[in-house]
Specification:
Blueprint lengths: L1 H11 L2 E2 H14 L13 H4 L1 H18 L5 E5 L5 H13 L4 E5 L3 H10 L4 E3 L11 E6 L8 E6 L2 E9 L5 E9 L16 E4 L1 H17 L1 E10 L9 E4 L2 E3 L9 E3 L2 E2 H10 L3 E7 H7 L2 H11 L4 H12 L8 E7 L12
Helix pairs in contact: 4-5, 7-8, 10-11
The structure holds S-adenosyl-L-homocysteine.
S-adenosyl-L-homocysteine binds next to helix 2 and helix 3.
Length: about 350
């Protein structure tokens, strides 16, 4: 992928950062299972079954209170399928069985997911999700993998960040040619030289599509990711390789490229599409409100040799120094659906 991208830039000139990320991540996910100790990064469902169990309770509670019989359960970017498998195990005890739809582009990960979630139906994008049943959608660490655009205040004012090849043939960020002042929020326009702001049009487009789907079909969505509220100054574009931060401009396609999610933009897109939004709240508060501590205690009682490990997992998922506040949870629903559990009123 690095060589192909370099050839593309050598031929046609610098490309927007968003194109660089899209090409690199497409190749990255298509070619490997990046999760877990052997891979590049880990996620909440891979840390503990309790994460999926709490999300399963969230979904079952919502489906029951919405009074739906048959419904679809969909996940965006399901990784190894662990989250969905954990949810389904819990939901089987509380709610009617759901038809499972997985939105995944990577052929390698589809194979892993099909083994974890037998009978799941696969889709390339949200456009093909069914709208003939109420639908509950979940997305954990999905939006952070979508390509962002960056604007940087350089010596010529605000410009979009592009990627070029430097004299050594290495990828390097550079300023685009077009003045971008007009798209910088007025409150941020006067930021110091060198300042960067980010936007993720792909995330907003998907949120708008989801809002349309949920408006037609009835239902709800839960999004969990690391992020913040609203446009701000800051560069969150990063690469992870073997659980270490790495240079995102080296070896595109072989390291995980992500950026923080702007929950303000997600919220605006979902509300603009007619949905009611709750949150975001911290992942720790959300999981505890759904009963994570009680679940950790009962698991520890049932498996005494694992008690310390289970307490450690609960700590990682909920503590402010770990994933508890960096990760945020947002729920959206069609107006005639009940509000979600897990969000303080
Ligand atoms: N949700 C999982 C995995 C997160 S990794 C977990 O919590 O463990 C990101 C996931 O999103 C991977 O499954 C990846 O293949 C998928 N993905 C990334 N970009 C995508 C896109 N544009 N469309 C669909 N899936 C995508």
């Amino acid at each position: 992928m690095g060589a192909r991208l370099a050839a593309l830039i050598a031929r046609g000139g610098a490309i927007p950062l968003s194109h660089y990320i899209a090409y690199a991540n497409q190749a990255y996910y298509a070619g490997r299972d990046p999760l877990g100790a052997e891979g590049d990064f880990t996620t909440a469902p891979e840390i503990s079954q309790m994460f999926g169990e709490m999300l399963g309770l969230w979904a079952a509670d919502l489906a029951l209170r919405a009074g739906v019989g048959d419904f679809a359960l969909a996940e965006l970017g399901p990784g190894r399928g662990t989250l969905m498998a954990d949810m389904l195990r819990v939901m089987a005890r509380h709610a009617p069985p759901a038809r499972v739809h997985l939105v995944e582009t990577s052929p390698v990960l589809r194979d892993v997911q099909a083994a974890a979630v037998p009978g799941a139906i696969f889709h390339d994008d949200i456009q093909h999700l069914p709208d003939d049943l109420p639908i509950i959608l979940i997305a954990n660490e999905f939006f952070d993998a979508l390509p962002i655009r960056q604007l940087r205040r350089g010596e010529h004012g605000w410009r979009e960040v592009f990627v070029r090849l430097n004299d050594d043939g290495q990828f390097a960020p550079c300023d685009g040619d077009v003045p971008m002042e007009a798209v910088v929020p007025a409150a941020l326009r006067g930021a110091a030289p060198g300042s960067i702001i980010e936007a993720c049009p792909a995330a907003s487009a998907i949120a708008t599509g989801i809002a349309k789907l949920i408006t037609r079909a009835g239902g709800a969505m839960l999004a969990v990711d690391y992020g913040h509220m609203g446009a701000r100054i800051g560069n969150s574009f990063q690469a992870l390789s073997r659980h270490q931060f790495a240079d995102p401009f080296v070896e595109p396609g072989s390291r995980d490229l992500t950026a923080h999610v702007d929950f303000g933009a997600l919220r605006a897109a979902l509300e603009g599409g007619g949905l009611m939004v709750q949150g975001p709240v911290g992942q720790g508060d959300f999981l505890r409100a759904l009963g994570l501590d009680a679940r950790a205690n009962s698991l520890a009682r049932a498996h005494p040799p694992r008690a310390a490990a289970i307490a450690g997992e609960a700590h990682r998922l909920t503590h402010g120094d770990e994933m508890g506040t960096l990760f945020q949870v947002l729920a959206a629903r069609s107006p005639h659906w009940p509000a979600s559990e897990g969000f303080a009123p």
